[in-house]
Amino acid sequence: RAIRDAAGSAGGIPGMNATTAIIAAAAIAEEEAQAIGLIQAQGLMFGLLIATNDHETGRRILTNQGYDETLIQVALTASSDHSQGDSQHKLTCVDAALPWLRAMNHQQARNMITTIKLLTEADGEINLFEFMLTQVSQRHIEIGLGLRQPPTIQFRRIAELESEVANLLALFSSVSGDD
Predict the structure, then answer these.
(1) Most buried of the four, 5, 21, 30, 160, by CB within 10 Å?
(2) Rg for the chain (alpha carbons), in Å?
(3) pLDDT above 70 for 28
């Protein structure tokens, strides 16, 4: 509709023909779609973390971080919608949000990473899903946008990992008990 309206009103703008008006309207529509997609993606990520805590704490953190009421409502709705979902469903949602999040500018990304950490640490405990979401966001957002260097490769051969794997298996064995 915006493109049709722009083409119709182009005659009233000196030097602008219908084609130029359509191109300008399409660019504006694209920017609006990008903004809506980013709000939905951020809201989804925040909502998944809020679902592990409570809505009031989530609202307070998002408000203190400067997010507007639209994004807060998207996050709270996502929290309710995904609070009972299994990990596979949640991971699929995260995967769908990542392309939008990689399109953020550096300041948006820094603010989002800070907010993810605050939401993760809000209850004083970190569950496996919160840990995974923090790691995924750091890898795909911070490293993807060049805010942080990727980790260096420490081991080049499997033999170099034997002692590390043995320690890890011993730790799992001691935690699992008789199971």
Answers:
(1) 21
(2) 22
(3) no
